[in-house]
Amino acid sequence: MRRPAAAVLCAALLAGCAGAAGERSGPADGRAQDPARAVSESRHLPPVVDHVPTRDPVVFLTYDDGAERDPRFVGLVRERRLPVSMFLTDSVVGPGYGHFARLRAVGASIQNHTLDHPALRGLPYAGQRAEICGQQHKLRSRFGIRPRLFRPPYGTYDTTTLRAAADCGITAVVLWRASLDAGGELTYTRGEPGLRAGDIVSVPSGETGSLTLTERTERLLREIAKRGLRVGRLEDHLARESGRRAAGN
């Protein structure tokens, strides 16, 4: 999974921008990296975030891959007006893009999670660019959009990833501080356990378990409400933070 620090929001964040939730394979899960150290000092590379500094009582719900297409989830997003972010992998979504078009129609945002879900760290620039830009093209052809947020599979990345992402039009690389497991329990990549304002949460997709995606999300929403928080739109808060920082420079 992923693990950045809020301090990593150094460069101007969003000017335009694309979970993974539930990814358990691979040796790294984002905890082995400190995004604050991993990001090049170049101001042209996108920042890496797992938490957004904000005074608003919000957290951000992100979903990866596109493996689980629970039809009840569309209704939940519509009824609760949830501004969730869906990070899609083309080879996983397959013929299921229609489901995500319905989610987008009720308020979900569609973001980039590569074409084929490889672990990117260590791969050559050309390969990483092909994975990221290739999915940009796919999503543009499917939805007429150019995502600005990107989540690297397994939360692993290197400076080459950030270079390729920037060249594909990405303005922020999104990891996560909290993740929901198949049983509906939250785990944390860093810091003290417990949701706090600004946390990016990864919700697993396609994991086997007794709870559906809708049921896991409903359980998470109860925990969010218990802590006096609500769900915010990630893109809006990243853009606001970018503007605040730019104004301070």
Key descriptive features of the protein:
globular, three-stranded parallel β-sheet, seven-stranded mixed β-sheet, disordered N terminus, 34% helix, alpha/beta, TIM Barrel, single chain, 249 residues
Q: Secondary-structure map with pairings?
A:
Elements: H1 35-38, E1 48-49, E2 58-65, H2 71-80, E3 85-88, H3 90-93, H4 97-105, E4 109-112, H5 125-143, E5 149-150, H6 159-167, E6 172-174, E7 178-180, E8 186-188, E9 200-203, H7 213-226, E10 230-231, H8 234-248
Parallel strand pairs: 1-6, 2-3, 2-9, 2-10, 3-4, 5-6, 7-9
Antiparallel strand pairs: 7-8
Strand content: 5-15%
Overall helicity: 25-40%
Q: Radius of gyration, rounded?
A: 16 Å
Class based on secondary structure composition and strand pairing: alpha/beta
Number of continuous helical runs? 8
Signal peptide: 1-20
Keywords: Signal
Pfam families: Polysacc_deac_1
GO molecular function: hydrolase activity, acting on carbon-nitrogen (but not peptide) bonds
